[in-house]
């Protein structure tokens, strides 16, 4: 689907300001090129100041006023901030953390979203809100709630306990099946009934891995069901598409969450020092809803901040580079948190477009720069679509749950994935980050790192991908756990995966500090993390251990299957030598698979390829502020200056962007 326009927007809280300030805001929004406002997500108390007394006229008037001034609205359901009448004197409705602490009123996400009375009141207000504004011409989209599970994880309240027991009974059917699956004879954890299964709350030592992981999956499913419920209510009264502003940092299963929504959006506050953490979101969110472009619903104009912290402000030019990169990689909208700085609350210091006193902030000039760039690139980007990559990296929030249960030495799934992604990014390879259930058609190389449990469905789809000629690179830290988060007993990584890969896993143990050195592709590097050591059966050893506890054994193998092959990466090469070895591995298999969507772009600069009718666009953006270059394979047309560009090196200045059209021969 092609977009109708590229949106430039901001979160706006008109309920906090008087009429004169709202008039000033609208005038300044038009000057700044802000033409979409997200409103309402924290305004429950304004919409329903007393239980049952719902008045939405203010928001109807604001939406109409914005629309009259050429500003569209994304309307939000205000459920992250339940008002005092819903919470006061009702601790049973509140969120309870894993230590048993009951939240009080205030902040946000302080109530349990599984509480039946909260759900009832949320549904009533959502229905009334959708009736009131759903058909207004200014409403172009809906956002459910705000940042599900950003500040909280799994709730341990009585409502959740009851739902947990029902969820387990629906999943296992019989308590003996749960006991067998979880191995509850260990430490006398055996249960006679589902209502005896505890939540993973306070405990003297560690909980059973199955209990801990399944409770996370239960929580993820329940928050997605809440989203589904809200979306179904809205759809009765509005045709506008529905999203949620999520993140890989939150305690949700994004793939499951977006399955019931119409388009995907995310919030990001990555600093200019961590460009990969920004880009990985674009490359993942592009693939949650492949038929719809994604939105960046929140990012800062300059810096994020709260009462307790602040981030480094963006250097001049960086915000424009972020925006151009996002649009080029498939975004339909680039939006800020927030429009006008808040004069009260816990995020008073946060960067904004306009200050609390109505003057431009340090980020205002950057917003104007983004709008100029947006206008410049809009037409060529709307005529094209982000190209599917040939290299895919699987991302799974369910894998994140496994790693949260079993973090080894405090491993962080987001950090591991971003670091792995960064190596492919810096090699100039166009890449898709794909959810676990994504189709694999069109890819040539598939990476599956940090996924403790490989489902039968995923393995079979990957096997079919290999049979068609793909190269599947499995690991590190992949396999080795069952669906129930137990250790398989038929083989270390499960018999099905090992037989497919043509290996026997001899040992699994942590390589750190053992003196193990891995040699592969003519390079050597120390090895790290929990690792698998292989004995090739049908496979061939590609990487061999030197020193340590398993010298002479394999840590990288490959096995031909059909038209492709399976590569097992049993350990993570570490340090600068490890980076070189990993990049050599990535490059080797990209070459072997004849990956064509790649360039020699310099580190810190990206090429985002887009497909037109008979031509390709290269959107080239310098992201690190030092300038960069890329080699054009043939003569192109500079879409912005309308001049020809000779084949060979093309240089960019700090934060500069170029759009080069390359016609197909």
UniProtKB/TrEMBL annotation:
Residues 389-595 form the Beta-galactosidase trimerisation domain. One of its GO terms (biological process) is galactose metabolic process. InterPro entries: Beta_galactosidase_C, Beta_galactosidase_Trimer, Glyco_hydro_42, Glyco_hydro_42_N. The keyword Hydrolase applies. GO terms for cellular component: beta-galactosidase complex. Its EC number is 3.2.1.23. Residues 604-661 form the Beta-galactosidase C-terminal domain. It holds the Pfam family Glyco_hydro_42M. Keywords: Glycosidase, Hydrolase, Metal-binding, Zinc. Residues 12-376 form the Glycoside hydrolase family 42 N-terminal domain. GO terms for molecular function: beta-galactosidase activity; metal ion binding. It catalyses: Hydrolysis of terminal non-reducing beta-D-galactose residues in beta-D-galactosides. Belongs to the glycosyl hydrolase 42 family. PANTHER family: BETA-GALACTOSIDASE GANA, BETA-GALACTOSIDASE YESZ. This is Beta-galactosidase. It comes from Paenibacillus solanacearum. The gene is yesZ.
């Amino acid at each position: 689907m092609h977009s109708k326009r590229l949106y430039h927007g901001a979160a706006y809280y008109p309920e906090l300001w008087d009429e004169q300030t709202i008039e000033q805001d609208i005038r300044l929004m038009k000057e700044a090129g802000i033409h979409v406002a997200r409103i309402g997500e924290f305004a429950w108390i304004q919409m329903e100041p007393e239980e049952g007394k719902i008045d939405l006229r203010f928001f109807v008037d604001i939406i109409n006023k914005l629309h009259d001034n050429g500003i569209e609205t994304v309307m939000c359901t205000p459920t992250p901030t339940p008002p005092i009448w819903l919470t006061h004197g009702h601790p049973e409705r509140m969120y309870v953390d894993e230590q048993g602490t009951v939240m009080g009123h205030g902040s946000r996400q302080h109530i349990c979203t599984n509480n039946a009375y909260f759900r009832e009141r949320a549904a009533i207000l959502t229905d009334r809100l959708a009736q009131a504004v759903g058909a207004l011409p200014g409403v172009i989209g809906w956002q459910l709630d705000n940042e599900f599970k950003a500040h909280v994880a799994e709730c341990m309240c009585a409502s959740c306990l009851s739902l947990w027991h029902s969820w387990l009974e629906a999943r296992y059917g019989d308590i003996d099946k749960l006991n067998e699956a979880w191995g509850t004879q260990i430490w006398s954890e055996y249960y006679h009934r589902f209502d005896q299964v505890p939540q993973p709350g306070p405990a003297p030592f560690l909980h059973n891995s199955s209990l801990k992981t399944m409770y996370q999956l239960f929580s993820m499913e329940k928050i997605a069901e809440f989203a589904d419920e809200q979306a179904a209510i809205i759809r009765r009264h509005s045709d506008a598409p529905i999203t949620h502003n999520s993140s890989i940092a939150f305690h949700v299963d994004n793939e499951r969450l977006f399955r019931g929504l119409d388009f995907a959006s995310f919030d990001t506050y990555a600093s200019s020092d961590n460009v990969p953490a920004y880009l990985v979101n674009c490359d993942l969110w592009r693939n949650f809803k492949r038929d719809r472009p994604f939105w960046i619903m929140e990012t800062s104009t300059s810096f994020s901040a709260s009462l307790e912290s602040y981030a480094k402000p963006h250097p001049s030019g960086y915000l424009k580079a972020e925006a151009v990169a996002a649009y080029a990689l498939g975004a339909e909208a680039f939006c800020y948190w927030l429009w006008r700085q808040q004069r009260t609350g816990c995020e008073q210091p946060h960067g904004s477009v306009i200050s609390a006193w109505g003057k431009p902030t340090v980020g205002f000039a950057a917003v104007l720069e983004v709008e100029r760039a947006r206008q410049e690139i809009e037409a060529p980007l709307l005529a094209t679509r982000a190209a599917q990559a040939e290299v895919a990296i699987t991302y799974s929030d369910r894998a994140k749950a496994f790693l949260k249960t079993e973090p080894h030495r405090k491993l962080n799934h987001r950090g591991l994935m971003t670091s792995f992604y960064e190596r492919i990014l810096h090699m100039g390879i166009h890449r898709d980050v794909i959810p676990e259930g994504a189709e694999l058609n069109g890819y040539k190389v598939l990476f599956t790192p940090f996924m403790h449990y490989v489902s039968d469905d995923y393995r079979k789809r990957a096997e079919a991908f290999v049979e068609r000629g793909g190269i599947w690179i499995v690991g590190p830290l992949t396999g080795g756990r069952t669906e129930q988060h137990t250790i398989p007993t038929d083989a270390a990584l499960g018999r099905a995966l090992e037989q497919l890969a043509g290996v026997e896993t001899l040992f699994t143990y942590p390589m750190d500090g053992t003196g193990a050195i891995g040699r592969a592709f003519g390079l050597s590097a120390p090895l790290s993390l929990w690792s698998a050591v292989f004995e090739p059966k049908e496979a061939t050893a590609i990487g061999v251990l030197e020193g340590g506890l398993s010298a002479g054994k394999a840590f990288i193998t490959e096995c031909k299957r059909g038209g492709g092959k399976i590569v097992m990466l049993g350990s993570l090469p570490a340090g600068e030598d490890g980076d070189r070895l990993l990049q050599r591995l990535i490059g080797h298999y990209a070459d072997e698979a004849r990956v064509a969507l790649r360039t020699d772009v310099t580190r810190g600069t990206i090429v985002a390829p887009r497909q037109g009718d008979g031509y390709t666009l290269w959107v080239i953006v310098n992201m690190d502020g030092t300038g960069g270059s890329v080699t054009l394979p043939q003569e192109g047309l500079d879409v912005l200056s309308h001049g020809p560009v000779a084949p060979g090196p093309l240089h960019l200045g700090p934060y500069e962007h170029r759009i080069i059209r390359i016609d197909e021969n």
